[in-house]
Structure formats: structure tokens, C-alpha cells
């Protein structure tokens, strides 16, 4: 028995004195309203109405039950209203501050189509992780090693001039081999890649091929790093999509393959699962991530 539906029909019929009008107010056929109320009467063991040609008249028991029934229906309506408000409440999501406005707008639009309303907070990797821990955001796209990643973005090196090689080997920047200028070319690591699984590996390859310590540096901002590259023969560690956006020429690296890894972290597990499963492709586009074999994760992913 639909208990709430039966009490709703009871309240509407009692207030209108008619099964026909009460059923219309309940938005069900008259026969359905009658069956629901009859089932309720059997459940309670008492009649709620005296049915006659004059309409639906409440019995004494029915009059006694009406105030409680009204409170129940009003509470159910309030709960439905709160549920709708909760679904429309924005989910604050910390995202990489390198995400373009256009890509975030597309992600936002697709999220709305999936019943998720996002409020973006752009931040660097360490800050995104801290925002989740402190619950200042409900979820974040956090930087993780490639093996732990849901989304992966391949990195390479990009310069202002069109590079004459298909692959850039870091060793070609070694002192004595860089012939384009007397100033040694440098590789700039932007803040988004200032994480151990990228930065430390880049430093190790620098040392392994004999570059000077100052030839690989971490820039305070992407803007500053890009300015250094645009005004010299320096190179920026970045993705192919990011290089295109910045007007740079991108090539993969030879000695090492570096990958940005992203995972969704959330204070509540259901938020992470909802974002991961419903917005997998939209987030992949926003991050410039490659499609992985098997596509998006299924709803059953733990």
C-alpha cells in the first residue's frame, strides 16, 4: 500500500467533500483514490468516510485523524521541496588553474545536463588537496601519479620556434651541445607540474644527462614561464593542448615520458563517484586527457 499516497488522497477528499474532486487534486483517477482510501481503512480497522449521495462525509474517526494526516502530507511536501533544493545546490569543485574558461564552461554545461551544478575553484595541486581535507570544497581534481590516475595527460616540451626534430632529447641542451645561443636553454616546470612524480623525475633526468642545475627550474606562475619561453630558446614542460593554447610548438621528450595524473577526491565518497562516472568524458576534455582503453569507469566502480 502507498501509505503516503493514501493519506494524501484522504486529506484532499476530506477537504473537498468529494471523491471526484479530491482525486483530481491528488492527480490520480477517482478509482485509484477510492482504492487507496479503502486500503487505508482496512489497515486502520476503522472507516474514515461515510459514503453517501451527499458526498464524502468524514466519520468521527476520520475527523480525529485529519489533523495528523495534514501534518504528514505537509511534511512530505516540505521534504520534496528540500530534496529539489539539495539537488540544485552547487557542488564546489577545485580544478587545476590551467583549465581554460571555455573548457570549464563546457564541463559546467554537461554537468547541468547530468543534474550536477558545479561551482569551480581554480587552484594549484597542493592547494586543491588541502581544500578537500579542510572541506572548503566538496571535491577536487587532485594530482596523483599516473598509476593511480583516472585521467592522464602526456607531457612534452614546447618552444617559441618550430622545433626541427620530431622528439626533443633533454641531453641536447647539455652545455657545449646547445648551439642556438650563448645562453644555455632551460626547461621550465610550471606550478601544475610542481609535484614529486613529475618535478623529481625531471630533475633526475637533468642530472643523468649532465645539464647544469639551473637549466631545469620551477616557475612561480605559468605566465612567467611562458614569458621566458617566448623571449628565448627556453622550453616549457606542458601538454600538447596547452602548447597550442599558448601558441608554442610542442614535441614529446625522448629520454623520459612524463604524465600528469588526475583523480577526483571528495569528503563524501558519493560525490567522488558521481563526478567520476557522470562526468568522465567532460573532465577528460577539460584536462586535455587522452581516452584510455575501456573508456569511462562504470557505475559499479568502488
TrEMBL record:
InterPro entries: LysR_HTH_N, WH-like_DNA-bd_sf, WH_DNA-bd_sf. Residues 1-59 form the HTH lysR-type domain. It holds the Pfam family HTH_1. The keyword Cytoplasm does not apply. Keywords: Transcription, Transcription regulation. PROSITE patterns: HTH_LYSR. Belongs to the LysR transcriptional regulatory family. This is LysR family transcriptional regulator. It comes from Streptosporangium oxazolinicum.
